[in-house]
Structures are given as structure tokens and as C-alpha cells.
């Protein structure tokens, strides 16, 4: 029997678990429909899940059809459990994404869609809650096609006959489908299956899970139109989850990716004890699971989440989403520490992203979490298991460090007469890649076993620190490039000492960068709150764009986690509960306040004795420490990068010599040969005597007139409200009186215009003012523009820049992300609002300093000093004669 693994994903409360329940009922896996609100659904089997009405842990259920077994995997819908969801994506064949017709496309839905694209998983869409009144099916489909144009309504497709309108819509998704439609007048089921499996078409169904509408059609489609993946004969499996049963036996949840998995067969150094096929909290044991199947296995206690088993090799893989906030959890003194620490170890196995670290001295546990919901769940689990309450500190952002340049680190360990020297090449790669370990050594220099052991030790070490703040490293390829030892069989400890010293020495000499995590955000709020929100976002170093939707404004962008993580409370407060913000991890980027963070951490890498950057050498039987910046003058092996450079230069020189010899030597002729050829062609050359040679005439010096290049007039065009809300002073005034903030800004610009040479055009939105037309006023020495009805400041600035950019030097002041892209495309200069405010402050200081200098030089004013020079001389003569 073939096996199909389908993961069910959704934004929280879209009805995902209810849909799973309905599909299980339609497939006769359960006898009655359970409900989440009735707390009797098959897949919400934990008390916390039934109490909260949300999925916290992924669960599996089986639908047994005539020739197909469908493994349905229900995943958590909340962002705080996204790591669990992402692990499931690594083993499913198709995804079923659930969208609520009532709420529409929500923030986490977009995140899931991007994840499915990243994992290249064929996707089916089910629009749930279509039974709500006022739901317009075509409007919902339009919103969905805003995510992807190839989302097609499959409810109109008759599986037996089809219809032309459906094929017509389907043909636009791919050229091959279009060609087949034109040639045959239809599209075959095989072509449709192939297009779906290649993510060229995304089938969409509509219905209601609670009312059992559209469920059977969806199940029939999955049975008929989902292709079964073909696997190889080489044994393999992937561990996607670790859990424990009621008897506390470790379960490795795996997908068999090649050949078959049998009970009692060896895997690595262990043997499979029992194979279980789960459906909810119930299971049956089997003797064998073929490739493509999903099961839970006992007996493999050394395997961890993310491990890949290929034949006899076990490959460690940890590339899943990780939390960006670190917490300190304090536990009470009277807790049963043995049981508590044992449970924490088991929790680390099932959720490795928590990165749990025990601090025995002060009753604290260091761990990382995605957010407050995950924290509350953890508190409840500890209270239920141990009857104790734990306390959590404020979340602290998890920073990371990376490299900007390639360096070679050298580590030497010679405590006595025996030594090992290691050279590591450190190269920057994409931050999302994490740390990649490699070896460029031959077997002659070091055995394969030693190389594998070193790389394995590095890859499993969670405590590799950077040198800026002591944070973890990411985005670096670390390669073994040279090893030397005077021992036939050096101890592995010698190698590791040299390896880690080489790593630290490389980091100390490299140009390191501090990275911080970013959140993507979506804000929905009343339009009248836009100014306040834009001001806040600019102060949070956010990049964003916004659009108006009926009576609300939607703002999408990204910002540093350290700035935006607690913005929800502030937003709800000043919008009186009408504002909402949705956050999801974006990844790491350059830290916006690197120096401030480094100063706060006050990490001194050279004082970190656990991570030495220098090396140990030995002379005359005495070992001594060599600082990292002096290691190059003591090392025994030449630098790998220097050797590469020499080889490159030598190869280039050889190539140049070879090229010259092959092209020049064969063609060169002496003077006699050239003369002979010339005379044979043009006749005998008549030699001129010296006195008959024409003299070269040198013209007299000519007077040149240099024309002065005309100066091009400069204009500064300013988005007024954008500038107001970027300024703390003006923004605060605008909250109280927007008109007063406008007048204050105009006065500030008048002073600024008096100091700079550019004309200033200040543009204000008036697009909501009914019947308004464009007004241009001359306010002292600046121009003030109020746009006409239905025209925003952005549109006016774009139009003005288009007209002026060819004739004048134009600089535009705005922090609007979309506007900045357009301005750059026109070839104009750009200043952010924050930069312009700083420039105005600089000009204000310079004006003040000049005025002070003038006032000091002219402390007293006399009429005599203002007289012409000749009159002053006559007055002085009269004064002298009187004396």
C-alpha cells in the first residue's frame, strides 16, 4: 500500500484541527466528529491543548483508504511553536494550508506560505468557515490570488468530465498546460498531477469543517491527484521529533527515506526495538515500515531531532528556526532537583531549540524562547509535574557574530616537547547558513578519522563564542587547511586545543560584525493613528510601507527585535484597542546600534581564559604563552593563504610568458625583411638628407579663454508630515496640535534656507480635504505646497521630481521606503528624515556660533567706526591741531 504524508498548517484559530477531525471522519478513521470547543477532538489529546483550544504539539493520525494510507499531521498554528511546525515540513509530501474565510489572509498564513516555498512542498488550500453569513467566495479567492496567481478554484472541476472554464483558468498557470489545452481542448489528469507536484498549480477548495461541507471532495482529490514519491534502495531515515510515551520511553519519530525499516535491525550502534504507527494517542506495532512511511521507534536512544541516517552514517542536522530571546528561569529551592533536571534533559531532546543551560550555583536555568505563549505553557507544565512555580526574567535579545573578510587562524599547542599546529580558514557565508565545517587536507597530512573527529567536535559544540560580545557565531565556513605534529599518534586533546586556539586567533584578527534578529511585522490600525505609528517605526529603525484599506491602514515591514518586541502594548493603548500588530521572525541582519551593544556587554576576549586566543610554544623544555597577534612570527607551518597567493602569481606569470612566446616570437621580423617587403610593394625608398628634412613648426602660444561652467540650481523637496513624525519634538507637538507642528517646521526651514544655497519646497498632504486644489504659498524664503484632493504628498513629489530632475540638482527628504526606491530610480539625491533633522540641528548650531563670534568681536558700537576712511582722517587732523 502506498503512503502519502500530508501536513496541515494554518494561522491560529483558522479551524485546522477541526478540518483534521472532519477528514478522519470522512475516511472512517473515527466513528464520530469531535470538536475543539467540546474538548473531545482526537488530536488535541493534552489537557493544556483542550483547555486553551490551540495545538501545542504536532500529532499524527492515519486515514486508511482502499489503496492508500494517508498520514495526516496536525501542526501548531501559533508562531511561538513555529520550530515544531518547521520540523514537520522536512518530512511531508504535500501541505494542506487552511485559511479562515472570516479572517482572510492573516500574517502567519503568509509566513507559512513562504516556508512551504522554501521547502518546495506542493500545497493545497482549503478555505474554512464558508458557512458564515456575508462571505463572498470570489472575494476570498481574489485575496488568495494576491499571495499567488496560480491558486485555482478546484471545486468547479468535475472529475469525470471537466469543464472548459476550469481548463481555461488552469492553462494560464504553465506553458505546457497552455500548449496541451490549445492542442487537445483539455488538460489530462496526469498533467494536472504533475503541475501540482511541481508547485505550478495550487488547488483551492471551499467548505466548512464543522458542518462537514466540502470535506469528501477534498479527500477524494487527495487520493486521486497527489503523486506518490519514489525513493531509492539505499536505507535512510530522518528524525523529525523526539517524545516520550506514558511509560517515559523515548520515541524517535522518523520518516523512512530509503529501503525499509525493520524491527531489531541495527541503526548506527543501536538496534530498533519496536516500531509504532500512531493515530492520536493510540498506536499499533508493526514489523516493517517501507520507504515513505512515518513511524515512531523505540531503542534508538542516541538519535536526536534533525539527525539523518544514510546507510551506516549518522549526519547531524540542526538547521531549524531558533528563538531570538534569551531568558533566565529561577526555580524554587525545595523542588526535587534530580527529577527536575532529568525532565529538563528530556525537554532538551524534544525541543533542542530551547538551548537549556543549567546554572547550579544560583538556582537558575538559561534558555531561549519564541514568546510569551511558549513561556506560559512551560510554566504550566512545570507546575503540573512538580507542583512548583518558576519565575522568568525579562527577555534578552540573542545577538550573533559573523565575519566580513576571509582570514586564516593559527593555533599551536606545545605544552612540552610534543606539539600540534593547526591552521583554519575562516570564510564569510550567508548568516542563515549557520556554521559550516569542512576539511581541505589530504590523508597524507592527517587521517580521515582524526579529521572527522575534529569536525564532529566543532559541529556539536554549542559554546563557540565570538570576540565582540561573546555571542554565538553564524555565517562562517570553517575549514581545516594545515596540520603539523612531531608525534606519530598525537592525543586528540592536543588537536582540539590547537583547533580552538586557531579559531579564536582567526576571529581576533578578522573584521567581525555584530548581528541582531529582526521581526517582520504587519500593523492594522485606524487611519488617524498613522502619524503616530510612522513616527514610532522610524524611531525603531524600521523599514516599511503602508496602504489604506477602507477605514484602516495596513503597514508592513521589518524592524530589530530589540526595538519592536514590546510595541503591542503601546499600540493598543494609543489606538484604544483598535490597533493590532503581528510579528514573525525574519532572520539576522547588521546590528543598528553595534557600539552601544558591545559597550553594554563589556566582553574582553583576551581575558576569557575558557576561550584562549593565543598559543602555547615550548623552548628549552619550558612552555610559554604567545599572544594571538604574535603567533605568526612563531608558527611552524607557512600560511595557507600565502601559499595560495604565490601559486596564483606563479600561474599567472607562466601564463603570460606562454602567451607572449606563442604570439610574438613567431611573428617578429628584422628591419631588413621589413624594408624588402615595403620596397617590393611601394617601390624603392628615397632617403632624405638632413638639410632637406622639413623642420617641425611649433605654433606660437595660443591664448585660451576658459568659460565658466554655469551653476545648476539646487532644490530640496521635503515630505512635510513624514519629517514631522520623524522628529521627537515636532511629533510630540503634532499629537497635541498638528497645525502648530506645521508652523514650527516652516519656521525651522526658513532659518535653514538662510544658511544653505538650495531652494526648499515643503509638501503637505491635503488629499482628504474635499474640493481642495493644489496651493503653492511663498512663506518667507521657502515654498509651501498643499496637495489637491485625492493626491498624496508622495504622488506630488514623484511628479515634481520627474519634471525637475533633468534640469536641476534635486534632493528629496523622506523616509518612506517605496518613495525612496522611486527617487533613486530618477537619479536624485536622497536624505532620510532623520538625517535631515540632524543636518538642521547642525546648521542651527553653526548659525548660533557665528552670531556669537560676531557679537564678541563687536561688543561696542561707535558712530566713528562706521564713517568713511577720508572723513575719519580729517576728523583726526582737526583733533590733533586742537591739541
UniProtKB/TrEMBL annotation:
What does the record give under GO molecular function?
GTP binding; GTPase activity
Task: Note the SUPFAM superfamilies from the entry.
Answer: EF-G C-terminal domain-like, P-loop containing nucleoside triphosphate hydrolases, Ribosomal protein S5 domain 2-like, Translation proteins
User: What are the BP-aspect GO terms?
Assistant: ribosome disassembly; translation
Note the superkingdom of the native organism: Bacteria
Residue ranges of domain Tr-type G in the record: 1-231
Q: Which InterPro entries match?
A: EFG_III/V (IPR035647), EFG_V-like (IPR000640), P-loop_NTPase (IPR027417), Ribosomal_Su5_D2-typ_SF (IPR020568), Ribsml_uS5_D2-typ_fold_subgr (IPR014721), Small_GTP-bd (IPR005225), T_Tr_GTP-bd_dom (IPR000795), Transl_B-barrel_sf (IPR009000)
Q: Carries keyword Ligase? A: no
Keywords linked to the UniProt accession? GTP-binding, Nucleotide-binding, Protein biosynthesis
Annotated Pfam families: EFG_C, EFG_IV, GTP_EFTU, NYN_YacP
What parts of the sequence cross the membrane? none
Protein's name in the database: Tr-type G domain-containing protein
Species of origin reads Johnsonella ignava ATCC 51276
